[in-house]
Amino acid sequence: MSRDEPVSDSAPFFSDNSDGEEQGEQAVSQRTQEESGSGVSSARALVTVLILCYINLLNYMDRFTVAGVLTDIEHYFGIDDGKSGLLQTVFICSYMFLAPFFGYLGDRYNRKFIMSFGITFWSIVTLVSSFTPKQHFWVLLLTRGLVGVGEASYSTIAPTIIADLYVKEKRTNMLSIFYFAIPVGSGLGYIVGSQVSAAANDWHWALRVTPALGLIAVLLLLVVVKEPKRGAIEARPEQHLHQTSWLTDLLALSKNCSFVLSTLGFTAVAFVTGSLALWAPTFLFRAAVFTGEKAPCREGQCSSLDSLIFGVITCITGVLGVTSGVQISRWLRTRTPRADPLVCAAGLLLSAPFLYLAITFAQASTIATYVFIFLGETFLSMNWAIVADILLYVVIPTRRSTAEALQIVISHLLGDAGSPYLIGVISDSLRKTDSFLWQFRSLQLSLLLCSFVSVVGGAFFLATALFIERDRELAENFVAIDDEPTAPKSDRSTGVPVSNVLI
What we know:
Keywords: Lipid transport, Lysosome, Membrane, Transmembrane, Transmembrane helix, Transport. The protein has 503 residues and is mainly α. The chain contains 20 helices and no strands. The chain has helices spanning 17-38, 42-68, 70-77, 81-106, 111-129, 137-155, 158-163, 168-200, 210-223, 246-254, 257-291, 305-333, 339-360, 366-381, 384-394, 400-413, 419-430, 436-447, 449-464, 468-476. It is globular and about 60 Å long.
């Protein structure tokens, strides 16, 4: 087979024995290239991914521990829905605005040390926040904002390390493992937060679990993880992809239609997940109080059952969603190179009606509500690993941390930075009285906004599908010319289908 002859993605499934032997030799050759190119052995690369996954899990555990005990926090400080939403908003804003700074550092300096600093700082601040006195709610807001430093230093960098350790299907598989930690960690945040709070009869203890686990993560980073070479396993070592100025990077990314549109689509995902993550357990509890299934929390601890159930649902749906999204995308890729954005679009468009039914059925049937939440969250979770993969194969290695940071800024600025607070403010404005009916009804009406945003996000991913082939090929054929924007290689064949490039 000539170098320029197109290769079908489905070839491995229909080859004869000789083809199998040839593919086996190619697999060994690719594995050797990856190890020698990245400078990291295959065993250490796998351990590195597992450590990064563990840290990602801790990040999301900490983020949603507060949501798991939100009813207790509202009762403890005597705050309304608007102030409750601020707890998530200040964290996301800090995380969002610091992401470009850490993205800039991550593209130029040792990523392992940057992450170690951020996680250490995050662990200390989280522990400090657990000692907030009753009369100083602003202290809890401040410390939750500072927690964003740790996550900004980690989330912008960790996927780029995985991208420098693996290519093609291996990269997709490892990113799937990495992004399992988002829904699973989120679910564990509800579970651990609510159960530790109930066991200690004090919600403050819920915030003291992840700091200790965070310090273990720092030790693993410093001792086990080895910094891989940027872009080496893609046959484009760092000396062939020299650094360009930050403004040049931003200009190039702004012209990358697939990156821009997929980021806007992911913004819708962030808006919906941010709203549901903070408000769903509280909404379910208010529905149960309104229907008489549960007593209101006037003194002591509030019921933690809704946080526990929602946490379990989030864990399960996260695993199912990420797995099914990757597998469907892999199967569809044999038929169209536009598979990734199409699967993302389908996930959002299918989640919209189930989220709407979950919100409207809350007062009629608790079981039906949980079933619809299960289905809606499963479809919503299909996007996580795929969106990350899209970014990595439409952006060149030396701009990936900057791209991750820019995606974080846009998706959170327009997504979950404001959505929890917005939902809370709308809820407060719609509430006519402070009765149990209007506490439930106002929050119910405000949460309906999530279904509309899901549809808009699906439209952005459909638009991404129009440009994904072109942008993937440009990223593969990129060669730097001093500090100029993107230029394709003139001497490289473009005969290989873009469905076989990088992923």
